[in-house]
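Narrative of activities, Objective 1.

The group set out to show that a structural description can be obtained from nothing but a protein's sequence at a throughput compatible with the screening campaign. Below is one input-output pair from the validation batch, recorded exactly as produced.
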Amino acid sequence: MKFLKRFLILIILFIAYLFICANSYANTVSKDLSDSVFRLHILANSDSEEDQNLKLLVRDNVLKYMKEISNGVNSKEDVEVLMKEHLDDFYDIARKTILENGYDYDVKLEIGKFDFPTKVYGDIALPAGMYDALRIEIGEAKGHNWWCVMFPTLCFVDVSSGSLDNESKEVLESSLDDEEYDLVTEDNFMVSLKFKIVEFFEDIKINLASK
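Output recorded for this entry:
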């Protein structure tokens, strides 16, 4: 009986150890990805077809302007500086697009850290977590959102084919370390298991923060 109790205690301690190690790994990877990635996040006023179409028009005009001013941007820090310098311009573009299409929604822009669920972008996937982003909220911002990665520069990539081209992957690979790059691009058992570990713990944090 004593042996069984000791065995059960060892099993419990081992499981606790694995849990702590997995949580530590998830925290480290999430922080590293957050430090390497800057995102654009646009929320529609509602889920009506009209509001969703308006969101995409705002997206197109914001990205067009972003492409014009982003030459020479080589780091996440450069992107953040650029966003802050041109925040009023992005507001004007979004607001003008809304008015030109017959709506009078206000727009709220904010640069900061935001909770993101797991997102798939072509053949890369970013696990849930806190990421720096430019968030654009249209009207009541209660509709489905659209997002992209502003750095590394993937916002201008056509992912309708479901995959990134080699040039885009090179940009991504040069901006992340090997562990991070494998985690968001590779599809094998061990990498998928690591991704699920990060996803699991970050989803818990997001759910707790939202309560």
